[in-house]
Design goal:
The relative contact order is 0.21. The chain has a single domain (3-73), classed as ACP-like (Non-ribosomal Peptide Synthetase Peptidyl Carrier Protein, Chain A), CATH 1.10.1200.10. The radius of gyration is 11 Å and the shape is globular. 57% of the residues lie in helices and 0% in strands. It has helices at residues 3-13, 33-47, 53-56, 62-73. The protein is an all-alpha fold and 74 residues long.
Length: 74
Amino acid sequence: MNIYEEIVKELKAKGAKGSLGKEVKISSIGIDSLDLMDMIITLEDRLEIRVPDDKLMGLETINDLVKLVEELKK
């Protein structure tokens, strides 16, 4: 399973706009914090992980989210 592709698929489902490359800032893709939280919950269920709230605050780019999910999957 490619974590990046799963995240991009979920971002698009939430209405993310523009380029969704790894270095793109989450704040620039047109989704609000509620959509982001809903996407995180979906990913948690699908990937059987739990993302600590304190880790969410430090997410700036899509790659930050990819790295966090990959770390939690180990």
